[in-house]
Amino acid sequence: MLSITRTNTLLLQGLADPRNHAIWSEFDQRYRPVVQAFARKLGLSAPEADEAAQDTLSDFAEQYRGGRYDRGRGRLRAWLFAIAKTRVARLQRARAQQRAQRGESALGVLPEDADPEAVWEAEWRRAVFQSALAELRTAESLDPTTLRAFERVALEGRDVRETAAELGVTPNAIYIAKHRCLERLRAFVAELEERF
Questions:
Q1: Cα separation of 149 and 165, whole Å?
Q2: pTM, full prediction
Q3: What is the pLDDT averaged over residues 38-49?
Q4: Residue 196 and residue 127 in contact, taking contact as beta carbons nearer than 8 Å
């Protein structure tokens, strides 16, 4: 999992140089999964979602290099959302045209509860949470037993007493581990929300 090391400010400054492949790679790793998941939730196939992500990031690069991004007008994720929404809509229109040419219904199969903004926000939060969880799992100061206890009880929903017996600790130690990990996880989420 990618460790997010740069704030958006540092990332955007690095993107000014198109030859800075490390920064562009970090940008791609940070945002491509969000766009792909967003497109999939709006009914695109996996290949179409990949295309939407590629087009979104390419459009972003072109617009950014052209000086069209103004931080004063909004957050980076709002700008990416606008680009992604446009790209997904274009692919959906193209799909509808292909259906119509084949004599099928031109109406796409869009999930009934698909509110693009809500879908984008949910995918954004999921990406932040997954990155925070990756940070938690690699935290040097975290004891491996504490992490295992947290994962089993908080993430997998396993029984506290069974987990305590399995790990050779008391149920109270499991509750303490869960509390400590949740605190660290919340701190990582807050930090990543600032960086994202």
A1: 11
A2: 0.63
A3: 90
A4: yes
